[in-house]
Amino acid sequence: MQVTQSHDVTGHVDFVGAGPGDPELLTLKAIKAFESADIVLHDRLISAEILQLAGKTAVLVDVGKAGFGPSWKQADIDALLVDYATKGQRVVRLKSGDPTVFGRLDEEIEAVEAAGVPWQIVPGITAASAAVASIGQSLTQRGRNSSVRFLTGHDMKGFADHDWNALARPGAVAAIYMGKKSARFIQGRLIMHGADRATPITLVENASRPDQRILATDLDRLPNDLSAAEMDGPTLTFFGLAPRHAVQALTEFKKEHA
């Protein structure tokens, strides 16, 4: 059960969703927690514009993780949360998107609970919601799909395995997080299980940010088009969705007149 002690008795941890990067997409509750924080432990991908909203006296600590690269160990992040909070600090654990979606939230909650530290979750807009809005689509549609899958491209064992048979069915829609490095693996598994090679694939890099980019392709061309696009920022991959023509045209117009 969540502890609800006063800040005057001990420290406190707010697990805050920073959203996809646009500071205007932060919730009022997130901003309130952020402005009152003593310590902000933030992910690597948090935008500079959001970090600038922290209180003037807040200490910012980058505890970011990088897929297949140098990263903070989860145990060290857990220990840091507990250390600051048990010293009476108001700690914001700032996570990209929504902390409940592929955010290792449970491990950190278990650590602070074991130390008797009070906490709360402040949800944020997850990347899939921001990215699908940027292409003018809906994650679900009557007559097409009554469910949508949120998938990770890789897990602790490497490239993540999924129910490929279900994903390969006509009309299936999936939002794939951290899927760039696993694109060829995902393509192979889906084709092996009968997915149509012409199934639309859309990748949204830096969703909601000024440098957002949209790549529209299909399952057959996915790895080659992704390689050619050289997307270096955080990217959300949609399986089964293409941008609306009006949105794609507007995006291209903005690029031409930037």
TrEMBL record:
Taxonomy, superkingdom: Bacteria
Please tell me which top-level EC class this enzyme sits in.
Answer: transferase
Task: Name any Gene Ontology BP term.
Answer: methylation
Q: What terms describe the molecular function in GO for this protein?
A: uroporphyrin-III C-methyltransferase activity
Q: What is its EC number?
A: 2.1.1.107
InterPro entries given in the database record: 4pyrrol_Mease (IPR000878), 4pyrrol_Methylase_sf (IPR035996), 4pyrrole_Mease_sub1 (IPR014777), 4pyrrole_Mease_sub2 (IPR014776), CobA/CysG_C (IPR006366), Siro_Cobalamin_biosynth (IPR050161), Uropor_MeTrfase_CS (IPR003043)
Query: Coiled-coil region(s) at which residues?
Result: none
Domain (Tetrapyrrole methylase): residue spans on this chain: 15-222
Q: Cite the entry's keywords alphabetically.
A: Methyltransferase, Porphyrin biosynthesis, S-adenosyl-L-methionine, Transferase
Pathway annotation from the record: Porphyrin-containing compound metabolism; siroheme biosynthesis; precorrin-2 from uroporphyrinogen III: step 1/1
Q: Which SUPFAM superfamilies match?
A: Tetrapyrrole methylase
* Similarity field: Belongs to the precorrin methyltransferase family.
Query: What is the name listed in the Swiss-Prot or TrEMBL entry for this protein?
Result: uroporphyrinogen-III C-methyltransferase
Organism of origin? Ruegeria profundi
